[in-house]
Amino acid sequence: MNTQSIHDEHAAAAARQRKSSVGSLAANLGYMVRRILRPMVAAHLERQALSELSRLSPAILRDIGLTRGDIGSVAADMAKERADAWARRT
Predict the structure, then answer these.
(1) What does pTM read for this prediction?
(2) Measured in Å, how far apart are the chain's first and last C-alpha atoms?
(3) Which residue pairs, CB below 8 angstroms and at least 24 apart, start in 77-82?
(4) Where are the domains of the chain?
(5) How many Cβ atoms sit within 10 Å of the Cβ of residue 37?
(6) What is the pLDDT along the chain (90 residues), one digit of tens a residue?
(7) Distance CA 82, CA 88 (A)
(8) How far apart are alpha carbons 62 and 32 in whole angstroms?
């Protein structure tokens, strides 16, 4: 082995280390973004579900097994599940 090949191997190892560090940083950044955005996504989805369910007639609500009093908790549960699914996909 000559000096140039040793230098090339060292440079390649350093490049792999930087790439690994960048990948780890990107993964951590993605986790942080999802953790920050998940509650905002859940709140948006909950408002959307509340709006949609509130527009349904009492007969339709009864058909799907809900009362007006159930809408808030159902919307919150649906929003949490959908926000969690969104966070897993991203």
Answers:
(1) 0.67
(2) 46
(3) 78/45, 78/46, 78/49, 79/42, 79/43, 79/44, 79/45, 79/46, 79/48, 79/49, 80/42, 82/41, 82/42, 82/45
(4) 3-89
(5) 15
(6) 566 666 667 666 666 665 667 678 888 898 899 999 999 999 999 999 999 999 999 999 999 999 999 999 999 999 999 999 998 887
(7) 10
(8) 41
